[in-house]
Amino acid sequence: MEYTALHTLLWLLNAFTLTTQELVKLNVSPKITAECGKQVTLNCEVSSSPNGLSIKQMAWIQNQTSLCSVDKEGKIKPHSRSDFHCEYKHGQLSLIFKRVRPLESGNSKPYTCKLQSNRGASDAKTIVEVQECCWSVEGVWNEGRPTCTFRHVYPDGDVHWFHGSHNLSDGSVKQHTTKQVHNGWLTIHSYLEHNLSGVPYNCSLKSTASGRYIASSLVENPDLHAQRARAQIHKTRARNGVGSQRPMWTSFFVLISLAVTLK
């Protein structure tokens, strides 16, 4: 009998523990895609009934480092980093990034939401994936040659140069490309050795992830641009000059007709 009573007590204790664990769960999105250059919000919400639930501590953690935590009074612990902030309301803790950096994303670096309450502890993980990205591209004419710089590129890309419809990546014109990495972002700088006359150049960045062109810029010789602007001005003036002469000739013929009539 003693064994049976002890066995029953242990079974009830385990059942109570399981029931307690089931009462406190966290809702998070398993995977979040961070769009290029846009704000990203990670929400962690207590899914159990708030009645009788007392939150002792709730936190967002990555690599065993607390990024954001709230105490039992609902007060958020301040943090020193400026690239994100935290918000807490009615059992939901939000971790809000201005922009997620590649070094802080991926399957190897999940974000974990942890909860300690009077109904037990719980945790849930979410993964942030950064989309292929290029925040900005600048095309300029530098030292007599077309030059392009692509900034905040992820994960990587190849620069393709075009002159009109001709793809210069066939090796007909030598190009120089360098890459630098900072905080997981690439800065890609490319220029052509020679200057071909005629139409403007186009530099385009082709993503190594999807094979799509994700950024491009036109680059034009400033002298050629000035010539085109002057030609356009002359054309406009010539067109306006012809148009202005028509009313004058019309008036002249009207005066002659009146003179003949009066005679």
TrEMBL record:
Matches recorded under InterPro entries: Ig-like_dom, Ig-like_dom_sf, Ig-like_fold, Immunoglobulin_dom
UniProt key word Membrane: no
Keyword Signal: yes
A Pfam family recorded for this sequence: ig
Ranges for domain Ig-like: 21-128
Endpoints of the signal sequence: 1-21
Highest taxon above the source species: Eukaryota
Keyword terms of this UniProt record: Immunoglobulin domain, Signal
Name of protein: Ig-like domain-containing protein
Organism of provenance: Pagothenia borchgrevinki (Bald rockcod)
